[in-house]
Amino acid sequence: MVYGKSWKIRFYEKKDFKGQAAECVEDCASVYETFKFQEVHSSVVMDGAWVLYEQPNYCGHQYFLERGEYNNYTDWDATSPAVGSFRMITKF
After folding, report:
1. Full 3-state SS string of 76-92
2. What pLDDT sits at residue 92?
3. How many helical (H) and strand (E) elements, i.e. helices and strands, does the chain have?
4. CB 68, CB 9: distance < 8 Å
5. Neighbour tally for 86: CB within 10 Å
6. Which CATH architecture is the domain 8-88 placed in?
7. In the chain, at which end, N or C, are there fewer CB atoms within 10 A of the end residue's CB?
């Protein structure tokens, strides 16, 4: 089953959607290399669904985010703001 037709996610370096923001519509193997973010504290999923990974290259703990607002990394059940990579969920 296809999950969606479009994907868009926005990350913020501080909680409550503050600080620098970065928007993406495709997979990202290294958040730091692409956006220069060390940590992601909040996020808005505008389209589709995404998996965030704690480490670069899609490694480490995984966090599933559906459309919605996540004011703090604890909203996606993470224990730290470390996000090293992410990818779109296209099927399930």
Report:
1. HCCCCCCCCEEEECCEC
2. 64
3. 1, 7
4. no
5. 23
6. Sandwich (2.60)
7. N
**CB proximity list for 11: less than 8 A, separation 6 or greater:** 21, 22, 23, 24, 31, 35, 37, 40, 42, 43, 83
| pLDDT computed for residue 2 by the predictor | 47
Q: Quote the tokens at residue 25.
A: 């519509």
Q: Please tell me whether residue 31 adopts helix, strand or coil conformation.
A: helix
Residue 56 structure tokens: 């670069």
Q: Is 56 helix (H, G, I), strand (E, B) or coil?
A: coil
**pTM metric for this prediction:** 0.90
Q: 């490694």: which residue's tokens?
A: 59
**Quick one: tokens of 20?**
């620098």
Q: Is 24 in contact with 48 (CB distance < 8 Å)? A: no
Burial of residue 11 (CB within 10 Å: 0-12, 13-18, 19+) is buried
pLDDT (0 to 100) of residue 1:
45
Task: Please compute, for residue 36, the number of CA atoms within 13 A of its CA located in the half-sphere on the CB side.
Answer: 3
